[in-house]
Amino acid sequence: MSELRLSVPKMVTELPGRKSKELLKLREENVPGGVSYGIPTFIKRGEGAMFEDVDGNIMMDFAGGLGVLNIGYSHPEVVEVVKEQCEKFFHTSINIIQYEQYIRLAEKLNRLVPGDFKKKTMLVNSGAEANENAIKIARRYTGRSEIVTFTGAFHGRTSLTMALTSKVKPYKFGFGPFSAGIHRAEFPYIYRRPKGISEENAVKYFVEKLRNFFLEEVNLEEVAAIIIEPVQGEGGFITAPMEYVKELRKVCDENGILLICDEVQSGYCRTGRMFACDYWAEHGIYTDIMTSAKSIAGGLPLSAVTARAEIIESSQAGGIGGTYCGNPVAATAALKVIEIMERDNFADKANHIADIAMNRLNEMKEKYEIIGDVRGLGAMMAIELVKDQETKEPAKDEIKEIIKECNKQGLVVLDAGVRGNNIRFLMPLVITDEQLNFGLDIIENAIVKVCESVYSCC
């Protein structure tokens, strides 16, 4: 295990450093501004939860490549199997020449995805592509056209998945018109429940809103599927309450509707289970179609659609798939990633991280009025910042300054939520306790500094 893997942040230049400035200039000349970036630096190498930039700064990553690096940067066992596969062949399309890795990975996912029924899996390239195929398959199987999604949802940036996605800026602005047949119900955002509704009664309130939605907004007999994230990602790391999920399953069962669970960001041990819908299974609730991506292959592009066999088999030969889908190098990486996650109890690692981080974040909430809410499932955690605890006015400007301050101190963090006032935590699950606490110290110090400059106190 190298020194970088076990290090803590050490900044030797301001951001951006000299080499990063040169690359930023080159980027501006050659890359469209629509491909945004969060931090003005360029990585040279990464290990575990740490990376070194081109200017020699050692930095900690609490963003994890947008949830892709649950297993960490450059896991040596994954690197080794990828090298071995690259020496054999990079690619051949599964639609032309068969290769074993695709079949073995499908077999493994069919075993891991909850449900004591026959399942089958197809592999694609990205979370958006997985969700798009899930919708295609649901429409093909049911013969229906309408899809229900939720406020706060993020399902991708393709034409169809943009329509499923809730946040207008930056994801949808100016890109319409959007695909037809999409209907948006209100997600049970407990923290932002209406005034006068207690936390205890909030789920009942949102369940009643869901029932009214189906009376007022869309004919149940025309709905092919309901697609939901068990924990909203871009929406602000909001967990769907179990009673709400039970209601969704009931609606689906009574009306011939498929339930699609989008595990693109929540999957692969992030929430303290292999998949967040494992928590559903503990209550006897199973999804009809599940999509997964991001951390499946440790950083190589790969995603999956796993469904009840009779549903996914409804497509005609050639109706689903694609040239790069289930690339053999990516599938090889995924097989090793899942093997390591099961062997080394990565779900337990996520829960251990949550025990430390949630305790620290809740302590901060008691001390700093700017923190309105602390929430999460496993190591998929967020804090919501507000200007006023009573009005819950989003502290959007303050969060930008907090993130900048964290970057200065060598910590990469991201915002989230349609209001842009959440800090989300997606640190690699291989992070050490020392690194985790060091990063949380940076977060707290940044909150204090920004609060003092804006409000004179916290």
From TrEMBL:
EC number: 2.6.1.19, 2.6.1.22
Enzymatic reactions: 4-aminobutanoate + 2-oxoglutarate = succinate semialdehyde + L-glutamate; (S)-3-amino-2-methylpropanoate + 2-oxoglutarate = 2-methyl-3-oxopropanoate + L-glutamate
Example of a GO MF term: 4-aminobutyrate:2-oxoglutarate transaminase activity
Record keywords: Aminotransferase, Pyridoxal phosphate, Transferase
Pfam families documented for this protein: Aminotran_3
Biological or metabolic pathway of the protein: Amino-acid degradation; 4-aminobutanoate degradation
BP GO terms, sorted: gamma-aminobutyric acid metabolic process
Required cofactor names: pyridoxal 5'-phosphate
Family statement drawn from the similarity comment of this UniProt entry: Belongs to the class-III pyridoxal-phosphate-dependent aminotransferase family.
Protein name: (S)-3-amino-2-methylpropionate transaminase
Top-level taxonomy: Bacteria, Bacillati, Bacillota, Clostridia, Peptostreptococcales
